[in-house]
Each structure stands twice: as C-alpha cells, then as structure tokens.
C-alpha cells in the first residue's frame, strides 16, 4: 500500500491527482484525445447527472473512420469534407437520469473551431457549453454551464457547481503524455448543486429540475487510438458517509495481464492499493456486451470493496454504465454500504465501420439534436 505522497509505480495506466494538470494538453496527433468527466448522484438517490467535455470525440464515426486503414467510408467523408484528420472532433455529452433511466441525453458534436480550453488554468468551452475552475471564500470548485440540443429540437440549459471536498492529492505529479493512458483523479468528492431547464422547439418550458447531491470529477488523456489500445476497462466510484472508494481494472490489447487498483479516501488521505480482483455471475446486455454482475476487490491490508452491477442505466455496443450497490470494508472491519456509479468499456466494436451509421444517429450536429435517443 502507498499513500499519495509516495511514488506510484509507472504503468500503462498513469495515475495522478492534480488540479494544476487539469488543463488542456494540445496535440497534433489525429488519434489523440482528452476528456473531462463530471458525475453526481442526488441526495435521495433518484437522480444522476453525467457531463463530459471531449476535445476529440472517441465514439464519433469521424474520429474512428479517420484512424482506420483503407476505409471507404472514411474516404467518402473526406470527399464531403466531413472529416479532417489534422483536426479533432470536439463534443459535449450530457445525460440526466431519473430512477435508473436516462430522461434527457444530449450528445452534441461541434466543429473544431468551436473548441477552446485553458493551458494554464482548468477551463474548456465547446460551442455554448463551458466549465471553469473558480475560487470563492467558501472553497474552490468547478462551474459548469450547458446549452445542448436534444431530440425533437428541444433545448436543454443547465448550470452546476462542483464544490471540491476531496481533491488535488498529488498536485505536482505531471501527466505522462507519451505511451500511457493518463487518468487524473482531480476531485474524488464534491458537493454538487445545479438547475436544469428543458424547453420545446418554441422555447416553451417543459421541465425545471433542481439538483443537489455528491459528485466526482476526473480527466483522461491518451495519444493513441482508443479501440486499438484498450482491451477492456472497468471503473467505479462510491461515496460512503465517512470514506470514498474508487477502483479500476484496465487492460491494454498489448498486455496479457490487466492492472487493478483500489483507492480509498478517509480523513483527507488518499491511499493507493494494489488489489486482487474477482468477477462472478456474468451476463450480457441487449447489445451483446458481456459483463460481471459481481466484483470483489481485496487489498493486502484486507480493505475490501464488493460491487453488484445490477442496474444498467446506459448502454451501447462498446460501453455500459451502471448504478451499482457497493460495500466497503476498511481496516476497522465495519462494512459500509451505498450506491455508486460504475462503467465498463470494451471499445473493440469501434474498429468496425458497420457501427458508424448507428452511432451517428445518436449524435447531434450542426445545431440539431440526435435522431435516436
């Protein structure tokens, strides 16, 4: 076991926890991508929000077609000037869940010139969507403003604040931007407040949602094409009354053995633990992805995290998102239970061009919402 002020072993999955590194890292590689992820669960457990800002949309047919070899669809898009391998495809993904189901989802892709991001302080703007780090007398946190197109030409606007409670555990550890996937655990716990407004195509108000809950924020970066690099990746986080738990199991296509880590935060201290990993009771979702319904992680100091992935709240041909029951047992031997968010990514299907047309129908572009939900 190591604490955050000790050296963490260099792996293909490079870990950091730094607000200073939560800035944009410009790159001129068409395969490279970077995203900022925010999520939160409401106090009553009924609502969840996930917001992602991407400088190069890893699920976009334009991103994936441009990186495939000898792809006729890519050549067709090039002739139509819909893809340009020298530029990225920025996107905003916003999903609001109610009672375990997506109620409002907006995946909006933008032109490269509609993207800008800070290289000195954390901030990003994509179209009329933006986030920025702000400091106030009561603490520091992230301000998010969303203006997204939904299906049927509806419009969603939202404003949120992620007020940092646990963050910045390794402030001086830089990103390894070479041959590694970089994961920056920026904020492990935040108090989240916000408001969502949904209007119809005539700007008539359809619903107003006030949100309050507990959230999380991380930042990912890689210079390599996702489906060519990642075999599978299981991840999750949960907020207990006196502790936070985050875990990952990450395997690259070039590696035989995955790496597994269990992180806990208690009393302001982040602990990083190598962990055993056991999967049981496998199932398949409606798109055919095979996933474990039960996961158990055990560290050397007998810290245990049990995960029940029983409620799929979002799915596709390449990823799943769950509301999961989690039980954490620390060295005091007392089990703590709560509901958290877990995800499973298997990006192999993104190599195949037959998926492009279907994925494209879930993406809004040119100021319009998506065709499919």
Verbal overview:
The protein is mainly β. The chain has helices at 61-67, 72-79, 226-229, 356-360; strands spanning 2-3, 13-16, 33-42, 47-54, 91-98, 101-109, 115-117, 123-126, 129-136, 139-149, 155-167, 181-199, 205-222, 230-239, 244-252, 259-266, 269-284, 290-299, 304-315, 319-329, 335-345. The chain folds into 2 domains: 10-55 and 90-224, AttH-like fold (Beta Barrel), CATH 2.40.370; 226-363, AttH-like domain (AttH-like fold, Beta Barrel), CATH 2.40.370.10. Helices cover 6% and strands 55% of the residues. Strand 15 (244-252) and strand 16 form a beta hairpin. It starts with a strand and ends in a 13-residue tail after the last helix.
Task: Describe the protein's topology.
Blueprint: E1 2-3, E2 13-16, E3 33-42, E4 47-54, H1 61-67, H2 72-79, E5 91-98, E6 101-109, E7 115-117, E8 123-126, E9 129-136, E10 139-149, E11 155-167, E12 181-199, E13 205-222, H3 226-229, E14 230-239, E15 244-252, E16 259-266, E17 269-284, E18 290-299, E19 304-315, E20 319-329, E21 335-345, H4 356-360
Parallel strand pairs: 2-12
Antiparallel strand pairs: 1-17, 3-4, 3-13, 4-5, 5-6, 7-8, 8-9, 9-10, 10-11, 11-12, 12-13, 14-15, 14-21, 15-16, 16-17, 17-18, 18-19, 19-20, 20-21
What does the largest sheet look like? Answer: 12 strands, mixed
> What is the count of β-strands?
21
Cα-to-Cα separation, first versus last residue? 44 Å
Helix/sheet category: mainly beta
Globally, the shape reads: globular
- CATH fold name of the largest domain, please? AttH-like fold
What average pLDDT do the residues reach?
92
Rg: 20 Å
